[in-house]
């Protein structure tokens, strides 16, 4: 796939999302096809199965598994026999979980980043924390994949931390089915396996979604080269092995992630709050360090684009909203809902290499993180799709 063009540094590492062919948004529709749902698209070629368990490990990029193969030998071996997916843009949890849960790219689901503008207001919403009073069903009204699965007679269960059950993100893009709250990873695994075994005993079709965030947390706080991150990867490796060993007959396990991650050194951070030039014409700053939505004051969008493009020409790919949509960042251009486009920044910046644009006064916590994600690098975009069990033949 050709990366975004432009002058400046080498952009050969950039990966545009493979929407409709091999993006995270294609996974659950393909799983429904494997479960026998008529008309469900299956661009991933998943083989038929009676039961499916989708285990999403937050922050587990495919390139990071390769780099740490000695700590995750089971995952690394499976990675060599399977395929990668792309996360979608921006490669961040809210957008990726939105794409997973709806089967739609971010430009169609409206889950367009970590922090985005609520159109018609001067407020920003954090789509992970859901920190403004916006109705999740109005923000994302499309039927979720879980709702469709239920409609087709498939038993759906989510197994994750109890605090997520009524979160705005869950209600927006993961609604449908039953919810099992479990705090520790062993308890989540036990809950998922119990649900799958019960379905197998009745020969019922079932879809279980299992989520784990501690790897991502370790990366944000300590970096992907830290002992805490590497230790978490080893835990995930052992957990996947246990799941495979205990899968009931007729069950397929799909292991994936929402994005990868890169460590951002202190000397590769452009601080908007300390750079008056980057503040000219800017009304609001959204997104996150590796993927910025820049909302311009009325009439200033063209000037903001020029300023950001010139100031960041060596460290970022900077596009206008229309350019980013046309180039397919948020999905095929025709799939981007024009009613949702105002949620996208007037200017969009995807950071290169290991650079970030931070705002140390406005975003104190986020600006201190070591590990970041959101952009178009292979390290962030390329995520695993590891298939085990009944449908594993599809991944060979």
Describe the protein.
With 396 residues, this protein is an alpha/beta fold. It is built from 16 helices and 17 strands. α10 (214-222) packs antiparallel against α11 (227-246). The longest helix is centred in the middle third of the chain and has 20 residues, at 227-246.
Task: Record the SSE blueprint.
Blueprint: H1 27-34, E1 51-57, H2 62-67, H3 73-81, E2 83-86, H4 93-102, H5 106-109, E3 115-117, E4 124-126, H6 136-139, H7 145-151, E5 155-160, H8 168-173, E6 178-181, H9 185-201, E7 206-212, H10 214-222, H11 227-246, E8 251-257, E9 262-263, E10 269-271, H12 276-279, E11 282-288, E12 291-296, H13 301-311, E13 316-320, H14 321-326, E14 347-351, E15 356-358, H15 364-368, E16 371-372, H16 378-381, E17 382-389
Parallel strand pairs: 1-7, 1-8, 5-6, 5-7, 10-15
Antiparallel strand pairs: 2-17, 3-4, 8-17, 9-16, 11-12, 12-14, 13-14
């Amino acid at each position: 796939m050709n990366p975004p063009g432009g002058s400046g540094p080498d952009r050969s590492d950039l990966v545009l999302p493979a929407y409709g062919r091999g993006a995270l948004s294609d996974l659950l529709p393909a799983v429904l096809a494997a479960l026998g749902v008529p008309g469900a698209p299956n661009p991933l070629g998943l083989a038929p199965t009676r039961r499916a368990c989708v285990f999403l490990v937050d922050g587990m990029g495919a390139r990071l598994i390769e780099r740490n193969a000695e700590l995750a030998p089971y995952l690394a071996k499976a990675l060599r026999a399977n395929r990668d997916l792309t996360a979608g843009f921006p490669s961040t949890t809210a957008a990726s979980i939105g794409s997973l849960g709806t089967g739609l790219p971010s430009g169609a689901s409206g889950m367009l980043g970590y922090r985005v503008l609520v159109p018609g207001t001067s407020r920003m919403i954090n789509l992970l924390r859901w920190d403004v009073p916006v109705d999740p069903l109005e923000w994302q009204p499309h039927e979720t994949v879980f709702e469709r699965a239920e409609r087709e007679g498939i038993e759906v269960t989510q197994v994750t931390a109890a605090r997520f059950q009524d979160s705005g993100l869950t209600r927006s893009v993961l609604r449908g089915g039953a919810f099992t709250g479990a705090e520790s990873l062993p308890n989540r695994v036990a809950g998922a396996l119990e649900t799958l075994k019960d379905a197998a005993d009745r020969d019922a079709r079932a879809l279980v979604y299992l989520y784990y965030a501690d790897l991502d947390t370790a990366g944000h706080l300590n970096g992907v080269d830290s002992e805490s991150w590497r230790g978490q990867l080893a835990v995930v490796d052992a957990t996947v092995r246990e799941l495979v060993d205990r899968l009931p007959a007729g069950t397929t396990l799909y292991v994936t992630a929402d994005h990868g991650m890169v460590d951002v050194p202190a000397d590769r951070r452009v601080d908007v709050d300390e750079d008056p030039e980057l503040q000219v014409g800017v009304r609001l700053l959204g997104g996150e360090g590796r993927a910025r939505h820049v909302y311009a004051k009325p009439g200033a969008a063209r000037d903001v684009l020029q300023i950001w493009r010139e100031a960041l020409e060596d460290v970022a790919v900077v596009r206008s909203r229309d350019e980013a949509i046309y180039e397919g960042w948020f999905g095929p251009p025709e799939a981007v809902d024009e009613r949702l486009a105002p949620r996208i920044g007037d200017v969009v910046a995807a950071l290169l290499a290991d650079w970030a644009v931070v705002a140390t006064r406005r975003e104190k916590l986020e600006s201190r993180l070591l590990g970041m994600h959101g952009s178009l690098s292979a390290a962030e975009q390329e995520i695993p799709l590891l298939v085990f069990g009944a449908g594993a033949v599809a991944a060979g």
